[in-house]
Give the backbone structure.
Amino acid sequence: MISRFCAVTYVAFFTKSLIAIFLFASLIIPGLASAQNIEFTAELDTNVIRIGEQTGLRYELKVPKGKIADFPQINDTISGIEVLDIGIVDSIVEGLSTLYSQRFIITAFDSGFYVIPPVFLSNDSARIATDKTGVSTEALLLEVRTVVVDTSKAIKDIKGLQQMPFSWQEALPYLFGVIGLILFGLLIYYLIKKQKNKALPEVNIPARPAHELALEELKILKDSKLWQKGLYKEYHSKISDILRQFIAGRWRIHAMELTTDEIMRLNDIMAQTQPVKQDLESVLTLADLVKFAKLIPGHEDNEKSMSSAVAFVNSNIPDLNGNLQNGGQQK
């Protein structure tokens, strides 16, 4: 009896174990089997749009975890449908599978029905199947409708420009710009006015002594060789003018307006030594004769007028104390 009881007990335990194993396998195996399948779907956000409206096209691919899969390569059109934006490929792991998804923004500018063809993938490799075999998406139909126009009503003109309400927030940048330009202009005006009103430092340029100017001009006249060219009048007139300018600068006398006789009666001239006075009078008198009487002087007279003029100037060069040098007499 005990042996029989044990045998029955063992059979019952073994039977229950088989049932438990069978139930566990029935739950796990379908999941494993489904994990090895490839699921590929395509979906539109809406299958009816108006001309120019946009809608989304979404592809989803579910493959076993770790398997490399292809996604459809779409450029700018799908069977006449314009592709406006191509999203990135997203992926998420779900248990033993990986779910890939990609979204496209599409539109169409002609009314009608558009067919989005299916995309085929190989069951084994999840690669694009050019022979159109294996798993695929379903073909999708997109309807593009025109804008409904009520032809019973008159055509209306385009609306005119709308007057927008005044906004200080929009006007402030322009107001600040005008204020900035005004301030900048005032600054420039102030700087220019300040520069004009600024007193420039006076530069005292000492006047050259009368004897330096006279000797310099006599040398220039001598080098010009006027009398050698037959220009006697110009030559002697220039000597007379140089001497008169020297007398005017040396003793502050308006000698340019005086005649020869008036010059010779000047106190400063009369204070000169006799030879100096005689040479000066000869030079001025000869210049008057050449200028007014058209006298043609000889070579010696021309040279003597120049040497006498130089001697007169040299004899009236003052020293640092204002005394005359080279035979001149101080008044």
User: Anything to note?
Assistant: The radius of gyration is 62 Å. The CA atoms of residues 50 and 145 lie 5 Å apart. The first strand starts at residue 39 and ends at 44.
